[in-house]
Amino acid sequence: MKIIEQKGQQFAIRLSLAVGILMLIIKWYAYNITGSSAILSDAAESVVHIVGVGFAVFSMWLSLQPPDKSHPYGHDKISYFSAGAEGGLIVLAAFYIIYISVRRLIEGIEISNLDTGTFFTFSASVINLVLGGFLVWKGKKTKSIILIANGKHVLTDSWTSFGVVAGLVLTLITGWLPFDPIVAILAAVNILWSGGKLIRQSAGGLMDESNMELRETIVNVLDAETIALGLKYHELRYRESGNLVWIEFHLLFPQGTLLDDAHRKATEIETSVKKSLNTSVNIVTHLEPLEKHDELHAEIHN
């Protein structure tokens, strides 16, 4: 099943790259025939998308590689670098769009073939909307932060394109050319917001920021299982590493418990935790005596 999911992830990210190239061709053609700042902002976003998804393709491949001597915990963390890089590129594209738009407001605006350019931009918007929805759905289904980040980027690109289309339609109806760069600036602000969220998500993942929903699930299972088996636990720690969740905790057993019994019960608890999370999980359990636990640790540390 895991191999099937990995192949599905790789297909989705490669599809995103192929569609991104197609969108770039459509949007740059629309810009070349119109000279529209709004369409330029949309085309610039597509350039960023292709660069970002290119890095995402590499990140996807690397994250699926098994652990080695240099990376005993695997390579899953690359997914956070991928999301952060894509967010950074989005922010750079937004500033570029704002710069071009402001300059055209100051120096003057020239637009032609606006009706044709609007049609091509709208077509690209619809295609990106479908692709973005598919990538986010696939990413959530396979627990891939790379696909989710890329899908959100594509959806942002799509909504930006729809905003651009709205501005182009207003320009066509009213004949007031400043609508074009103004809409481009508004689109850039939306892009900035999206890029900032991706960077924030990336930083949180690299810093092992707590996921409270994940914690609640783990604690609920551990509470139920340990009470049923007459055990206790403490020192719970967990972190997400791309598609993998690492969990550590100490299990406290009554005095005289046989090692075989302790190991069997620990394995049962670990299995229940893994089933509750429905994702790849690596659990490390430390077995300890329930009686005189604190005194034993105090003696060792002294």
Describe the structure.
With 302 residues, the protein is mainly α. It has two domains: 2-206, Alpha-lytic protease prodomain-like, CATH 1.20.1510; 212-301, Cation efflux protein, cytoplasmic domain (Alpha-Beta Plaits, 2-Layer Sandwich). 74% of the residues lie in helices and 10% in strands. The protein has nine helices and three strands; from the N terminus they run αααααααββαβα. α1 packs parallel to α5, α3 packs parallel to α5 (145-174) and α7 (212-229) packs antiparallel against α8. The two termini are 49 Å apart.
The first-level CATH class of the largest domain is given as: Mainly Alpha
The strand line-up of the biggest sheet is 1-2-3
- CATH level-two architecture of the largest domain: Up-down Bundle
Number of strands: 3
Keywords:
302 residues; mainly alpha; Alpha-lytic protease prodomain-like; Alpha-Beta Plaits; three-stranded mixed beta sheet; 9 helices; 3 strands; 10% strand; elongated
Structure described in brief:
The chain has 302 residues and is mainly α.
Layout of helices and strands, plus pairs?
Layout: H1 2-34, H2 37-63, H3 78-107, H4 114-142, H5 145-174, H6 179-206, H7 212-229, E1 232-241, E2 244-253, H8 259-277, E3 280-289, H9 293-301
Parallel strand pairs: 2-3
Antiparallel strand pairs: 1-2
Helix pairs in contact: 1-2, 1-4, 1-5, 2-3, 2-5, 2-6, 3-5, 3-6, 4-5, 5-6, 7-8
